[in-house]
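Structure (tokenized):
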């Protein structure tokens, strides 16, 4: 068969005139595809250009902020510093705040002298006779004076850390002078925010502490409650935190005298004032005290009522809180519990923990001759403990750590009691337990005769209960001792305020800071029992490697 016929049989529909049309359509499709590829290429180029421009701008910003604009220089904290004031007296007050906003805690304290040593200020500059009381803030980094102001001729009381006092953005300090004036001081600058008469009655005595209470006058700033006593009468005064004005009229409460008081918050958020004297504790609702002291029957919305506690109210208008001792109450303090705070009552013979809501006794232990207010810490991880110092006679004392859950002894040691007994201080380690710092005499003996020694500072950690670290010694008169983190998560140090008190003859008042890690380098390890098998170097290395936390 001829080839042409064969081709016709294989492609019967194929005609020669269709080929140009097919080629045209194929050419048109190829053109459209090229045009699409060209547009895609243009878009890719734009995206690539935008990417590189953005990358260039980011690198430029990094260069500017890293090399051209200098970072703020953070002052280096000195390992130790001391600030002395000649011919001065001081008060039992020490507060810690970041006054100059450098993220390092600063120290606020009070001294009385004729002339300020920080800025060459005198009492007469503020219209006071000499000597007068100065409130001063020292930098936590190097002890330099941040501010120093003469506030009154003599001080009865001072409290710092009061939020929004005088509508200031920084916490303030309230000073109560011997002339019964209330002075609000800005802790950021030292300047007086307001000064108002207290309206205290003649011959009355100030009771402490000052109480910071919820806003009761409707200006959205927390207010203040101050009590005074005159023989068997107690007067309560509510003051505006914004301007120091008295809220309502002055009232009085007849409580047959009192030794002290504590502001307690129940499970429902209701606030009660617990007054104590002898072996008795009386609870008054804050709302009832507000009505008695101000004469205003309508209670503010910020004051609540607790139905469970109100059922315990007696005909005299208060709630009696029973305890297991007929001895005088030495200390009444709050202890964190589950959902609310419990109450620890310390008398001259026993310590008792009360449930903060039901007021039932959780445990009672014998603690005769407690030397100072108990301190809270953690012997076990996240399990609260209480540190108590008791006098055991012959110039000796026992430091005891007890479980807050059961009152059982977790650790104890006995040592010489020094000439003074500052309250133990606690630092929280990152392992969930606490370092305890306390003062005492030496444990050194020679020929069965004790050597006369200075008062020593000791350090303890639950990881090595068979050891103590002896850090430092002092012959100065210690007014206040405290330990804290000057910077968040590091820079653990202790602070000493030493010198004569306001009731004594003037002398040298000194404020000093010592970094704990530096003190450990020159410390010595004390083995408390034969179970201590570690070398001194191992113990020192352990304490040096401790890391601390601001969070509990």
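Design, position by position:
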């Amino acid at each position: 068969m001829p080839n042409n016929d064969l081709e016709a049989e294989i492609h019967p529909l194929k005609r020669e005139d269709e080929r140009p049309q097919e080629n045209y359509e194929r050419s048109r499709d190829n053109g459209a595809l090229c045009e699409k590829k060209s547009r895609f290429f243009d878009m890719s180029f734009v995206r690539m250009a935008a990417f590189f421009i953005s990358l260039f701008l980011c690198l430029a910003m990094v260069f500017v902020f890293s090399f051209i604009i200098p970072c703020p220089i953070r002052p280096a904290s000195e390992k130790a510093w001391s600030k002395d004031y000649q011919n001065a007296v001081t008060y039992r007050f020490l507060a810690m705040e970041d006054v100059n906003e450098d993220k390092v805690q600063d120290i606020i304290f009070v001294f009385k002298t004729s002339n300020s040593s920080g800025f060459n200020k005198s009492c007469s500059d503020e219209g006071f006779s000499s000597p007068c009381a100065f409130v001063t803030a020292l930098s936590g980094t190097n002890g330099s004076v941040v501010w120093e102001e003469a506030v009154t001729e003599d001080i009865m009381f001072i409290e710092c850390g009061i939020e929004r006092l005088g509508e200031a953005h920084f916490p303030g300090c309230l000073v109560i002078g011997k002339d019964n004036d209330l002075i609000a001081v800005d802790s950021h600058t030292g300047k007086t925010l307001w000064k108002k008469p207290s309206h205290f009655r003649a011959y009355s005595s100030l009771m402490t502490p000052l109480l910071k209470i919820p806003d009761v006058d409707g200006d959205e700033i927390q207010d203040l409650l101050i009590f005074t006593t005159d023989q068997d009468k107690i007067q309560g005064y509510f003051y505006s935190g914004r301007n120091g004005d008295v809220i309502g009229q002055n009232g009085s409460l007849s409580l047959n005298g009192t030794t002290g008081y504590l502001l307690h918050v129940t499970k429902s958020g209701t606030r009660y004032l617990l007054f104590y004297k002898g072996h008795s504790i009386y609870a008054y609702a804050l709302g009832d005290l507000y009505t008695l002291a101000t004469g205003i029957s309508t209670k503010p919305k910020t004051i609540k009522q607790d139905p469970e506690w109100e059922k315990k109210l007696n005909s005299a208008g208060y709630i009696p809180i029973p305890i297991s001792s007929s001895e005088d109450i030495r200390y009444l303090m709050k202890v964190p519990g589950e959902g609310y705070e419990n109450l620890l009552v310390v008398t001259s013979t026993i310590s008792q923990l009360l449930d903060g809501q039901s007021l039932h006794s959780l445990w009672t232990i014998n603690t005769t001759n407690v030397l100072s207010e108990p301190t809270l810490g953690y012997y076990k991880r996240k399990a609260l403990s209480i540190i108590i110092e008791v006098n055991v006679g012959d110039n000796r004392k026992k430091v005891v750590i007890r479980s807050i859950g059961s009152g059982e002894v977790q650790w104890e040691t006995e040592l010489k009691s020094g000439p003074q007994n500052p309250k133990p201080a606690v630092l929280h380690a990152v392992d969930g337990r606490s370092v305890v710092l306390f003062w005492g005499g030496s444990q050194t003996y020679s020929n069965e005769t004790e050597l006369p020694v200075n008062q020593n500072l000791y350090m303890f950690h639950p990881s090595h209960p068979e050891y103590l670290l002896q850090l430092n010694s002092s012959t100065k008169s210690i007014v206040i001792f405290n330990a804290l983190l000057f910077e968040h998560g590091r820079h653990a140090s202790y602070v000493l305020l030493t010198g004569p008190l306001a009731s004594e003859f003037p002398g040298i008042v000194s404020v000093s800071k010592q970094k704990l890690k530096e003190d450990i380098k020159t410390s010595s390890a004390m083995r408390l029992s034969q179970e201590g098998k570690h070398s001194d170097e191992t113990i020192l290395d352990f304490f040096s490697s401790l890391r601390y936390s601001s969070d509990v």
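Reviewer-requested clarification: The longest helix spans residues 18-68. Confidence is low (pLDDT under 50) at residues 6-22, 443-453.
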